[in-house]
């Protein structure tokens, strides 16, 4: 005899607009359970009844087998009285503003849709806009909330009877799929030549032929235009770089399948899982020496960014082109990506040879996300398509809604209220008006989408940042947050940590409390405040900001400071005598040579000393090449100096740099020295942090700042500190780099506001 039992279940999280109700329906049927499911403004509610065993396994599978785009925060189960139902029904949504909860971010083509795409019997055979509730565009097409078709750029496409039938059938994969369409009723694709004139023929075939012939095709993707180029052709890649004015920054490669990815790069199981995940990020992998990829794709590096096709259009194009393609953002260097057809034809004139266009408008600009595995756990280096703006928590809720405007480079902003923080997609470097416009437009749309009217603007202390200017223009009360405190707070907050900790912030540059450039800061901090417990010794940086693109300038600062200018003469052999003399004067007279304690610039100096490069095409290039050069070689720990001044420990790298230069001049292998440099920085960091931990009794350490994009350094600092029994928090869902700063600013502001709030 079976005992009938009943449960009321409430599920919260990202469970609406992701096919959750049809999933519950199917699961209940599989277990022969009766009941109902419905959306409410804040959750999904389920009533089930049936045999006890069936109810138990239903509950277990509810979480284990949830739809791929769902994220479940909590499942609340209470006993209920069986009411003798025999069927299962999807009920009308409960009253209230429906689907207030945000939908999931954009998702790559799912396996089922991929099968249909290539199935000649399917009515969506080779249809470039095929989607279902498990896949397709979300934030890139939403104009306003709640997420319903009439408030997306799909609104202009009226579903045909066949599509509508799917849309209204709870048993169908496309039940309430807001982007549902087919060749009869959906968006259309066409090919245009470089002046925008429409060409006849199958647009994908024309584009594929152009790419295969070495041409550059601008493809209208999910979050904006991408430029597609044959990744196996050196000539094509060189032409792309010349036209985009992108000298050396690595380019990402797109392939259709995991097998094709494995022909290009090594991938662990965790890396493979990241590649095929719904977000379809660019994953940084170790490139295979014999990969069929043009050398100019990743000059000087051993890693390569690989992503799998994310849209049906990508699949069709890659299938016909039949080779790995470069997929890079459709812009001139340093500008935001183009999103509109006319805009792209104008802005990409002279770059693209042809355009693959369609008439589904891109509402929001989203770059591709970039991810790297460290110790088999993902670290997001750029958080955009597929991830943003999934809300993050704040360990100390903010009593008033706020906006944190972020820093200058790799900008994001954060809107927060209570314990929810919406971190924007990667906006870019706020160095031109176009990017600033992108920032303002995205901020306005986030305020609209999430109904948040900020009452305080939080900003970086640097007076010259354009983001700071935006905060000032807002007319809101202002709160300034120190850059490296924000880095540390971002890591603490992402891990839900509100207790005091030791924070290590290593980056290129950030404005210090004393007006100098900071960038190698070890703080004793909590969310509300900090003390600068240790930092790198100050060195004058001749030319200031120009040093980021000229590693020799950092080396010169250290050479002059350490009285090593004569011994290091070979380091500056490639620098013009005139420039060298001017920079030396700048350092000696302290003219246009601001003091800096920057770890990024220390990496630059080491790269210059090892003869790797004296100039750089982008910030961080020398450091990335130094990491590549070190590879997996074991390194020796060379010494630093350590002194105490004004209550802070001051770390002096001159002994280390002098030793590297000396060994190099005696013919030591630069690769081994690069490994020694990494090991030495990790060793010094471990030593200083352990000393502070002993002095303060703190057991938690947070690592942040762009320098920790270096996998070798991050893993090695982490293992040393964990070996000493400390709990180490590292960036995961937000980048180690400045992409996390706005979230850190929000976490700091929230903690300060909460402390001052009158209960
Ligand atoms: Zn699908
Ligand atoms: Zn249709
Ligand atoms: Fe930074």
Helices and strands, with pairings:
Layout: E1 4-14, H1 20-30, E2 34-39, E3 44-51, H2 52-64, E4 71-80, E5 88-90, H3 111-117, H4 161-168, E6 189-193, E7 198-199, H5 203-212, E8 217-220, E9 225-230, H6 234-244, E10 252-255, H7 258-262, E11 265-266, H8 269-276, E12 282-287, E13 303-308, H9 312-321, E14 325-329, H10 341-347, E15 354-358, E16 370-374, E17 377-382, E18 392-404, E19 414-423, H11 433-450, E20 456-460, H12 466-473, E21 478-481, H13 483-494, E22 501-511, E23 517-525, E24 530-536, E25 539-540, H14 551-561, H15 577-589, E26 595-598, H16 599-609, H17 621-630, E27 641-645, E28 648-652, H18 654-665, H19 670-696, E29 700-704, H20 711-723, E30 727-729, H21 741-756
Parallel strand pairs: 2-5, 8-15, 10-13, 12-16, 18-20, 20-21, 22-29, 23-26, 24-28, 29-30
Antiparallel strand pairs: 1-3, 1-4, 2-3, 6-7, 6-15, 8-9, 9-14, 10-14, 11-12, 12-13, 16-17, 18-19, 22-23, 23-24, 25-26, 27-28
């Amino acid at each position: 005899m079976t005992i009938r039992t009943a449960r009321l279940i409430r599920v919260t999280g990202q469970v609406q607009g992701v096919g959750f109700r049809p999933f519950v329906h199917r699961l209940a049927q599989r277990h022969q359970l009766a009941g109902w499911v419905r959306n409410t403004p804040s959750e999904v509610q389920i009533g089930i009844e049936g045999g006890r065993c069936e109810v138990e396994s239903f509950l277990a599978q509810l979480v284990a087998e949830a739809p791929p785009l769902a994220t479940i925060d909590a499942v609340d189960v209470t006993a209920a009285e069986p009411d003798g139902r025999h069927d299962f029904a999807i009920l009308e949504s409960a009253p209230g503003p429906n689907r207030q909860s945000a939908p999931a971010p954009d998702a790559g083509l799912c396996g089922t849709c991929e099968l249909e795409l290539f199935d000649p019997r399917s009515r969506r055979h080779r249809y470039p806009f095929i989607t279902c509730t498990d896949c397709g565009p979300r934030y890139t097409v939403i104009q306003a909330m709640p997420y319903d078709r009439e408030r997306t750029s799909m609104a202009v496409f009226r579903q045909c009877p066949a599509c509508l039938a799917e849309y209204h059938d709870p048993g169908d994969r496309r039940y309430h799929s807001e982007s549902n369409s087919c060749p009869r009723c959906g968006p259309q694709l066409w090919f245009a030549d470089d002046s925008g004139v429409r060409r006849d023929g199958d647009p994908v075939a024309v584009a594929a032929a152009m790419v295969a012939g070495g041409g550059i095709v601008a493809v209208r993707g999910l979050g904006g235009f991408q430029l597609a180029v044959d990744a196996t052709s050196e000539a094509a890649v060189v032409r792309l770089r010349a036209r985009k004015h992108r000298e050396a920054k690595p380019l990402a490669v797109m392939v259709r399948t995991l097998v094709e990815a494995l022909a290009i790069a090594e991938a662990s199981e965790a890396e493979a899982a990241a590649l095929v995940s719904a977000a379809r990020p660019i994953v940084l992998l170790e490139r295979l020496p014999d990969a069929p990829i043009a050398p100019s794709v990743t000059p000087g590096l051993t890693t390569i960014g690989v992503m799998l096709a994310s849209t049906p259009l990508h699949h069709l194009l890659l299938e016909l082109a039949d080779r790995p393609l470069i997929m890079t953002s459709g812009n001139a260097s340093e500008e935001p990506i183009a999103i509109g057809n006319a805009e792209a034809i104008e802005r990409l004139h002279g770059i693209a040879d042809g355009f693959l266009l369609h008439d589904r408008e891109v509402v929001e600009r989203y770059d591709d996300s970039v991810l790297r595995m460290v110790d088999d756990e993902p670290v997001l280096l750029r958080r955009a398509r597929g991830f943003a703006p999934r809300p993050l928590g704040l360990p100390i809720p903010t009593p008033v809604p706020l906006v944190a405007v972020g820093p200058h480079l790799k900008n994001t902003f954060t809107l927060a209220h209570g314990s929810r923080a919406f971190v924007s997609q990667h906006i870019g470097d706020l160095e031109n008006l176009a990017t600033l416009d992108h920032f303002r437009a995205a901020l306005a749309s986030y305020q609209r989408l999430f109904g948040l009217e900020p009452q305080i603007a939080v900003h970086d202390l640097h007076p010259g940042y354009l983001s700071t200017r935006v905060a000032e223009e807002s007319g809101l009360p202002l709160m300034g947050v120190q850059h490296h405190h924000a880095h540390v707070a971002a890591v603490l907050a992402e891990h839900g940590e509100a207790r005091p900790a030791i924070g290590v912030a290593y980056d290129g540059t950030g404005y210090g409390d004393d007006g100098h450039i900071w960038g190698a800061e070890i703080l004793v901090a909590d969310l509300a405040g900090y003390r600068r417990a240790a930092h790198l010794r100050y060195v004058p940086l001749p030319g200031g900001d120009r040093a980021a693109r000229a590693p020799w300038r950092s080396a010169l600062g250290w050479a002059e400071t350490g009285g090593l200018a004569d011994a290091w003469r070979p380091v500056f052999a490639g620098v013009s005598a005139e420039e060298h003399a001017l920079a030396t004067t700048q350092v000696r007279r302290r003219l246009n040579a601001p003091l800096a304690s920057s770890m990024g610039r220390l990496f630059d100096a080491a790269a210059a000393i090892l003869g790797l490069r004296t100039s750089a095409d982008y910030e961080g290039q020398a450091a990335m090449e130094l990491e590549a050069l070190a590879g997996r070689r074991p390194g020796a720990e060379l010494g630093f100096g350590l002194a105490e001044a004004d209550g802070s420990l001051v770390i002096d790298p001159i002994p280390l740099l002098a030793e590297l230069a000396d060994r190099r001049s005696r013919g030591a292998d630069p690769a081994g020295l690069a490994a020694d440099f990494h090991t030495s920085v990790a060793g010094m960091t471990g030593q200083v942090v352990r000393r502070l931990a002993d002095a303060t009794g703190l057991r938690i350490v947070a690592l942040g700042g762009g320098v920790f994009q270096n996998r070798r350094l991050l893993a090695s600092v982490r293992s040393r500190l964990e070996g000493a029994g400390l709990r180490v928090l590292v960036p995961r869902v937000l980048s180690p780099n400045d992409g996390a700063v706005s979230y850190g600013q929000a976490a700091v502001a929230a903690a300060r506001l909460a402390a001052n709030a009158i209960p």
